[in-house]
Amino acid sequence: IDLVILSTPMSEYPKFFSSLNKNLNHNSIITDVGSTKKNLISLKKKKLSKNLDWVMSHPISGSEVSGPKYGNTNLFKNKWCIIIKDKNVLKQKKVERFWKSLGSKIIIMNPDDHDKIFSVTSHLPHLIAYNLIKTAQDFQKKKNKNLIKFSAGGLRDFSRIAASNEIMWRDIFFENKTNMIEAINLFMKNLKDFKKNISKKENSNIIKKLINSKVVRKQIISQKQDISKPDFGRE
Amino acid sequence: IDLVILSTPMSEYPKFFSSLNKNLNHNSIITDVGSTKKNLISLKKKKLSKNLDWVMSHPISGSEVSGPKYGNTNLFKNKWCIIIKDKNVLKQKKVERFWKSLGSKIIIMNPDDHDKIFSVTSHLPHLIAYNLIKTAQDFQKKKNKNLIKFSAGGLRDFSRIAASNEIMWRDIFFENKTNMIEAINLFMKNLKDFKKNISKKENSNIIKKLINSKVVRKQIISQKQDISKPDFGRE
User: Fold this and answer.
1) ipTM score of the complex?
2) Other CB atoms closer than 10 Å to residue B76's CB: what's the count?
């Protein structure tokens, strides 16, 4: 066996090691597509035979749907793939070539930076989307109003992210716990400030913040991380 | 003059009344596209001549961009337009016909229900998006990491909403203050619970919430409030 790609929710990984340790040899390569890395480094140390190599990767692609019926040949095309710096340079290069052959652009990172960066660019946004949808559901129950019908003004965007696979995201939230808590705390501090701005109608404070936010959209588009069409080109 | 449509940020409305009172008569109709309504009812009572009619409307359409260069002939097509129940039934019907002629679907509401519903389906999502982008910016500054580059995993969706017009949204947040504060409080309570779930790895609690959230996406799509394609059909 040349290559094994672990591509299940991360809580399933521990189940595979007795089989990997039995069936692979020092020529084989293991990689994965897990969304957090420090936990996988620990897992590797604990469970993987010392003569086997696991070069870690994280392709930044995918969507709210999962399963073979949503297979997409362009899934990785022009998308970043993070590779965790490995002491086996030869095998790291092979894993890089593999992702490049699927169209990915490669970035090398250490596990700590990886987990910190994605706690903010991906994990916190998912938690916040789940939390907003839960809040809308609670409100709907409490006030007996139909919110779904009027979701086009913003709520619908969050519902897409909050439709993502629950096992995958439970694993990510739990495995990146420390960074998540830090990100949630920073988010809550900022939200309290916004609440105060609204409550006291602090005009210049709030305007300054709303204007500053706009820059990010332009940066994301200029770095080709999203399409430039208004409303994602939805009709 | 048959019809005047107030379509500026709401904080500009007070400027128009001396001119409206002077130039319109009892045959004219005023309407608007403002995103909150209880405040406009007060404004009408205070500023508008008693012989003039202002039937309020709120088309649920638009995007993160503004200005004439983003004009779109299908802007209102198959979108909801909320009309506030008016004592002048004849003029209310005329305003309904106007929006229908642009392709809108009409719903009649009272100002209180309107402001409560949109505080959750639109105003809170916008505030949360602004807050998430601010949090990412703060993190980026603090940790000196490039987040924009890796925004495709979730953050980019929030950046679109957080690129909306700052004057328009400042006005909405301020004018719907009471409902906003209530919505923020409910959101913060839920986020604290999520933080506890993560911190204590409360498995069954978190899985239950993540599963429950998925339903909303399906409802939104079945009510044709969003496109069904994964990732909004982005390539």
Assistant:
1) 0.95
2) 20
**What is the pLDDT, as a whole number, of residue A235?**
75
Give CA–CA dist B93/B108, Å, rounded: 11
Partner A, chain B 62-91, Cβ-Cβ below 8 Å: 63-65, 70, 74, 79-80
Interchain CB distance below 8 Å, B226 and A150: no
Residue B205 to residue B28: CA distance in whole angstroms: 57
Quickly count helices (H) and strands (E) in chain A. 9, 5
- Which tens digits make up the pLDDT trace of B120-135? 999 999 999 999 999 9
* CB < 8 Å from A in window 12-31 of B: none
pLDDT of residue B115: 98
Decide if A153 contacts A172 (C-beta within 8 A).
no
Domains and CATH numbers, chain A: 3-111 (3.40.50.720), 114-233 (1.10.3660.10)
- Tell whether B58 lies on the interface with A, counting CB pairs under 8 A: no
**So what's the pLDDT on residue A153?**
86
> How close does chain B come to A164, measured CA to CA in Å?
7
pLDDT digits (tens, 9 = 90+) for B3-22: 999 999 999 999 999 999 99
Q: Which residues of A touch B169 (CB under 8 A)?
A: 210
CB-based contact A151 B220, cutoff 8 Å: yes
Q: What is the rounded CA–CA span in Å between residue B56 and residue B37?
A: 8
